[in-house]
Amino acid sequence: MQIFKCCESATSQRHWKGGKRQSVMVTPKHSSEPAEDRELAKEAERKKILVRFPPYGGDGDTCPTCRGTGRIPRGQEEQLVAVIPCNDVRLKPRHTKLYVLLAMALCLFVCCLILFFLFPRSVSLTPVSVQSVMVYFTPDNISMDVTNLIKISNENYVPVQVVQFNVQGLVSKTVMGKSSMTNMTSIQPRSQRSDIIKLNLLITDKGLNNYCKSSSIKIHTLFVELQMTMNISYLSHMEQLSVDTFEYIDCGTNSTVPHPVR
Question: For residue 116, what are the domain limits?
Fold first, then answer.
């Protein structure tokens, strides 16, 4: 009985034949499993891409621009147009109504503030009192310098410029004197200011001259009407204020100052 021993290795096999040992080289077989695994992995990756990016056409073709990668080629951002389904959640951002309402409320609040501060308000002109009356006698007439105090109030939130101020004095509906002032100092917002207005009244009527120069009358009172007009400007807006007031003036000798006779 013969005993054959066979030893195999990864590169060769030994056989005994006819009492002699023969060596036979055997080429190892490479497994095809890694290649199949790679194909399976590629197919799985392709399925994942198709799930994330649905087919572009009806025949199953993917997007021709991004080719299933989900990225736009560099340099073509301004040439390509994205098509988004109507049911895409990106078209319905959260809290949209809240943001729109807040924006509308903010705009309305700003408009109200602008209207509140820039809306024209009243500017009032108020005669306060007569400061002094200087009476000068001449043979034919009487000259009186009347000094009045007036108050101007500005209720606006912007300065008010007094463009022109006119005043005239009337006695028995007859104009006895006029005065005018231009480019007066502006009135600051939400403030009031007092001004001195001087007016010269010249009485030429013989009846009034005799009345004022009469020594038998102790109090020589004249009823003087003052008509004041003021033109103001603010916020590109022009306005005219008119005020009529009445004053009692003593034109007698007890309050006169001598005047040189011409």
Answer: 91-120
Distance of alpha carbon 7 from its chain centroid, rounded?
Answer: 99
Single pTM value for the model: 0.57
Instruction: Give the model confidence (pLDDT) of 194-248 as tens digits.
Output: 999 999 999 988 888 888 888 888 888 888 999 999 999 988 888 999 999 998 8
244's CB contacts (< 8 A; 6+ apart) are: 225, 226, 227, 228
Report the SS3 class of residue 5.
coil
CB 32 within 8 A of CB 41: no
The reply to whether 115 and 210 lie within a common domain is no
Segment 182-198, tens digit of pLDDT: 877 889 999 999 999 99
Compute CA 204 distance to the chain's CA centroid, rounded to the nearest angstrom: 60
- Give the count of domains, the chain: 2
Residue 148's nearest CA partner among 248, 22, 217 is: 248
